[in-house]
Fold:
Amino acid sequence: MKKVTIKIVLFSAAFSSPVMAAEEIASKYPEDAGIEKDKAVIFADGFESGDFKKWGEDQSRGDKSRVVVDSKEAFSGKKSCRITATRGKNNGGGLIKWFDRGYDEIYARFYVKFAPDAGYAHHFVHINGSPKRWGSFGKAGLRPKGDDFFTTGIEPWFDWGKNAPPGKWMFYSYWHQMKKSRDGKYWGNGFHPKAGVIQRGKWICMEVRVKLNTPNKPDGEQSVWQDGKLIGEFKGINWRTSGKLKANIFWLMSYVTEKAFKHTDQHAAKHGLKANNKTHTVWFDQVVVATKYIGPLRLKGR
Structure:
């Protein structure tokens, strides 16, 4: 789990949102009812259909213990998506949604709940871009050329055991000006908000934004909100060299490797705790992807 922190970006310490509450898409659709019809919404799924037909790829590989619709747990409605990694058996999985057209600015909001005994994860929810369908996958350790792909994921960062499981939020990003790691390869560079502790056993509203740059100019950005509060805003990113490279992939993922399980074991041993070293479970609900800020789900009558 190699990560490099890059320091050419800026953090908005004032936690001021670049959008006003009145502009939140969710404020117009209590319980997200009908939100998929909003002209700014690209995709929405609350999993009430009981299947994953809206998605382009179900990574359960036929193993319903990995990725499944859960009828016993939900933030809103009656169902959610549950992803479980089972040590020695699988690494979890995810759902991938490709968009027919790409976007220069994209927002993705999702609710997530980590099991009370969830440990560290290896990778989490990503926004990718590539002219080729699978062009942004399987690129670990490689630097993009500027016109072929970029990826950025909002992930729980364990900071080598300094953060209690499941960690603190961070962006894990690949782009053509990323920094090289000590081993000579290009592992994702880290963008670290000053806030973002993850509490297990409760639903959390997360929203991420990626604004691609004018080709070859460092005016790209990425931002993250937790429960409607801006916790990180990073500017000055030269994501691409070509305007043909756009954000066109949303990957809802919980990927947990043997290394992640071992790091969880090590943290527990160091602090005299008992760790769940067999499974890692998270739930997702109320996924919305749009071209404008979405905001937290609004309860009816409020």
Observations:
- Confidence is low (pLDDT under 50) at residues 3-17.
- The two ends are 43 Å apart (CA to CA).
- Helices lie at 258-270.
